[in-house]
Hints:
Layout: H1 4-30, E1 32-39, E2 42-49, E3 55-59, H2 79-83, E4 89-92, H3 115-129, E5 135-140, H4 142-153, E6 158-164, H5 169-173, H6 177-188, H7 192-197, H8 206-215, E7 224-227, H9 234-242, H10 254-269, E8 277-279, H11 288-291, H12 293-310
Parallel strand pairs: 3-4, 3-5, 5-6, 6-7, 7-8
Antiparallel strand pairs: 1-2, 2-4
Amino acid sequence: xxxxxxxxxxxxxxxxxxxxxxxxxxxxxxxxxxxxxxxxxxxxxxxxxxxxxxxxxxxxxxxxxxxxxxxxxxxxxxxxxxxxxxxxxxxxxxxxxxxxxxxxxxxxxxxxxxxxxxxxxxxxxxxxxxxxxxxxxxxxxxxxxxxxxxxxxxxxxxxxxxxxxxxxxxxxxxxxxxxxxxxxxxxxxxxxxxxxxxxxxxxxxxxxxxxxxxxxxxxxxxxxxxxxxxxxxxxxxxxxxxxxxxxxxxxxxxxxxxxxxxxxxxxxxxxxxxxxxxxxxxxxxxxxxxxxxxxxxxxxxxxxxxxxxxxxxxxx
Length: 316
């Protein structure tokens, strides 16, 4: 006859096996790449990987899908998978952000849109996906507007920011009205042919989006890193005008005007929070996350570590 101890052991073994299997399944489900129902009859594509707090949310530039964060000079250096090695990370597709010649993985939305609309979508997406804050928001270019507005609208959900050569209202402030008309055209881009092929393409009301970031509540004190491109636009724009790659009415020296205005705008961003770190020696053009991914990874790691230290959590 089996002893009580032996009986207990025989019951305990399958119970432990079941627990291990459940934990494995839970971990497997936790990493996902799927379309999430955000309400209103729309779904948005989101991919999340890794574990740990805070969750890093990667927000790309205009017409950039979540796949942007998987691209680098070498795949093994890409931002998304590297962040997943030390904390939870999510990337997503805004409506109208295609991948090569394929349409966006997120359902279309009315265009042109605004940064404020993008904030509402991102909040709905993170809530519907069950991705709890606090978040470290990382915004590149137009994504910088989105994360700034989000941090002002939901201060309790945001614990840190990384701005990567971010578009800002300071750029408009640093240019004359006549210069800004040209700059706005360059930001929006000539997308007539693309729209003919893909009418749902993301477009933005630049001025309204800049007004929205100015109207948003100011950022509370939080860890902040600003990465600014240091490769000048001036020579490149002059060359593109000469080669007919930009409209002929764009002044050949307009890239130099942009460089000067962007330098002022980036300096202004560095004043958004006390003790913000402004990195200007990036050895990169506008797409710092692709050209110098390790610099972006290190900056995100620094903010994640600062957030964990504030909460008394163990270091990375």
